Fold this sequence. Notes:
Order of helices and strands: HEEHEEHEEHE
Mean pLDDT: 87
Low-confidence stretches: none
Structural class: alpha/beta
Number of strands: 7
Amino acid sequence: MKENDVSYMERTRDFYRAQGYTNDYQWAHYEDVPFSRLQKPLSQCKVAVVTTAMPDSKAGREQRQVHSCPSLPIPSSLYTDELSWHKTMTHTNDVASFLPLKQLKRCEDEGLIGELGDRFHSIPTEYSQRNTLDNDAPKILTRCRQDAVDIAILVPL
């Protein structure tokens, strides 16, 4: 970091303190990392994508819940307006720039991965680690298991 830079975590704490919050945000952390080594080559694995972008539909805009959508055909848009990204410096009009389904399909065609998962999954951005761990993450895991997915790529927006 440069001399005058302020770290993201420090800036976030200062922001919430200025809003009157007396307890600092508790960053998610895990003592036991819930990941494991691949049991087969990547070229034989089924890959799903999990994103914080929501379906561009009434349900996606209004229901803060886990959504699952077909990976193909690739959606032409996703709902991202409520997410934190620099709206004056960039846009989310190019779905391929933040939802790598097209790229993964190409990897499948080239034999780099076994296949693209049947569905991709949208998970709401939550500021509650408990809700994510107790509700949303188990739903994503169940759906990935239903689809016989070997790998889930997490793509926050």
